[in-house]
Write a structure and sequence with these properties.
Elements: E1 4-9, H1 13-23, E2 29-35, H2 39-48, H3 58-64, E3 67-70, H4 77-86, E4 90-93, H5 96-101, H6 104-112, E5 116-117, H7 126-133, E6 137-146, H8 155-160, E7 171-177, H9 178-184, H10 190-198, E8 206-211, E9 218-226, E10 229-237, E11 239-240, E12 243-247, H11 248-270
Parallel strand pairs: 1-2, 1-3, 3-4, 4-5, 6-8
Antiparallel strand pairs: 6-9, 7-8, 9-10, 11-12
Helix pairs in contact: 1-11, 4-6, 9-10
Length: 271
């Protein structure tokens, strides 16, 4: 039976978890090619999992695969989706902020006939938000609370002169729209993009980000209200073992999406 070949774009923490899932047989797929702007990261991943695959350009990685996974950063999403469209390859996009900032990519995918898979990432409750949209939502908000180390390096903190060193009590470091949140914290709040795309959009979805020295988890609280009533969903995530800026659930959502893609791919070829 044929096995789906995967091109991994971005060879960090999520890529490592996907390789492990494929190696353990949790996902019926295999890595076909690796690409990272830092080739040494791709080489380390290849060595770690003893993969006999090329470390190559984006175009070559997409061409070699049956299915593409973007697990890099938001800035590369347009290039990855356009490459997937050129080669007619379905694609899982983990950096949802890249899609939110470039909505024309949905048109690119539709016109080329490819499917973009969007993970739930590090939050629960998106199904309820999507359902509530059918009758109309009046407001949607997200409060993200993280240990200070989970926000280090965010461009917004440097631009605003906000220091998290020696923090002894919770500090609200951002309040604004999901659109501005994704720009301010491109590596930290993909959940804001996921929520805005499921609901009322990036400009109307409100986001608050809190650095909390007492926090031991990355937590996300969704609140939505509309014709259906009110919804509140809280997800308390343990940081990913390989990256404190990311929640473990984000990696697990990538695994479940890749597994679903592999099942669909296999079924289509066994009919």
């Amino acid at each position: 039976m044929a096995t789906m070949k995967v091109g991994l774009v971005g060879c960090g923490n999520i890529a490592s978890d996907l390789c492990r899932a494929m190696a353990d047989g949790e996902v019926q797929a295999e890595v076909a090619a690796l690409h990272d702007v830092d080739p040494s990261k791709a080489e380390r991943l290849r060595d770690q999992f003893k993969l006999n695959v090329p470390v190559c350009s984006l175009e070559e990685a997409v061409a070699a695969a049956d299915f593409v996974v973007e697990c890099a950063v938001a800035a590369v999403v347009p290039e990855v989706v356009r490459a997937a469209a050129r080669h007619n390859k379905d694609c899982l996009v983990m950096s949802l902020g890249g899609l939110m900032l470039h909505p024309d990519l949905f048109d690119t995918a539709r016109e080329s006939g490819i499917l973009l898979r969007l993970p739930s990432g590090a939050i629960c409750g998106l199904d309820g938000v999507r359902a509530g949209m059918q009758a109309g939502l009046d407001g949607v908000s997200l409060t993200t609370r993280k240990p200070p180390k989970g926000l280090l390096g965010a461009p917004y903190l440097a631009e605003q002169g906000i220091s998290l060193e020696g923090l002894t009590e919770p500090l609200v470091v951002f309040e604004g729209s999901a659109l501005d949140a994704v720009k301010a914290f491109p590596a930290n709040v993909n959940v804001a993009a996921a929520l805005s795309m499921a609901g009322i959009g990036p400009e109307r979805t409100r986001v608050r980000v809190i650095a909390d020295p007492a926090a031991t988890t990355n937590s996300h609280e969704i609140r939505a209200h509309g014709a259906f009533g009110e919804l509140m969903a809280v997800t308390s995530n343990r940081p990913s073992p390989g990256n404190p800026k990311s929640s473990y659930l984000a990696s697990l959502s990538a695994v479940i999406e890749l597994r679903a893609a592999a099942v669909v791919w296999g079924a289509a070829r066994n009919d």
